[in-house]
Design brief:
single chain; NADH Oxidase; four-stranded antiparallel β-sheet; 36% helix; globular
Length: 232
């Protein structure tokens, strides 16, 4: 039985939604064609990106669904050169530990085709760093639900919005990431989730050949699973 003291849900008509001019099939294909050109980039230009652009990108991310609509995220956007320098130095310190001691041989073997190392010059070169924090508790100390799922969904939309704006990004995950909360002076309820440099690619930008590979649809999509197993 429902608790008598619970607030009652209030419903309103569905707000106007986006309806494409084409068929759903054509619209879905067009979105795929746009997103298929997205690549993780580590060679950035220092070409400026306006604050307004970053604001619209973050607004797009905040349209993501979240557990109980708590919206347990905070996007700390950094353009100050000195703060970016501090973040880079702290990140590289953690990355040196990772590559020299923390990472297993299998992990290093998987990373080798991507050509990554402890040098994170892009953290200073990119005009903006968006540091995504997840809120372990809301600012009013209330509970959060499905925290990682909620923030992960928002980050997916953030990356799509960055690409849609004609910009590039890289999802950087130095481990541990506690230094980000210290450098950015964030409260205890905020935990670092992702560090995302944003900007334009450099004129000589290159990406790893492996990064161009995508698994075919039949390896990642299953329709009507759960039926009778097929024989060999």
């Amino acid at each position: 039985m429902p608790h008598a003291d619970l607030p009652k849900a209030k419903f309103v008509p569905l707000p106007p939604r986006y309806v494409p001019d084409s068929t759903p099939e054509e619209a879905a294909k067009h979105f795929f064609e746009v997103m298929r050109t997205r690549r993780t980039v580590r060679m950035f230009s220092d070409r400026p990106v306006s604050q307004e652009t970053i604001e619209w990108i973050v607004k797009a991310a905040t349209t993501a669904p979240s557990g109980a609509n708590k919206q347990p995220w905070r996007f700390v956007c950094v353009q100050d050169a000195e703060i970016k320098r501090k973040i880079r130095h702290a990140a590289e310190e953690e990355e040196r530990e990772f590559y020299s001691r923390r990472a297993s041989q299998e992990w290093l073997r998987d990373l080798a085709p991507l050509g990554t190392d402890e040098n994170k010059e892009f953290l200073e070169t990119a005009p903006w760093l968006i540091v995504v924090f997840k809120l372990a508790k809301m600012d009013d100390d209330s509970q959060v639900y499905y925290l990682n799922e909620s923030v992960g969904l928002a980050c997916g939309l953030l990356l799509a919005a960055i690409h849609h704006a004609g910009l590039v990004s890289v999802t950087h995950t130095p481990s541990p990431m506690g230094f980000l909360a210290k450098v950015l002076k964030r409260p205890a309820n905020e935990r670092p989730f992702l560090l995302i440099p944003v900007g334009y690619p450099s004129d000589d930008c290159q990406v790893p050949a492996k990064a161009l590979l995508r698994k075919p649809l039949d390896e990642v999509m299953v329709i009507d699973a759960g039926g009778e197993p097929r024989g060999d």
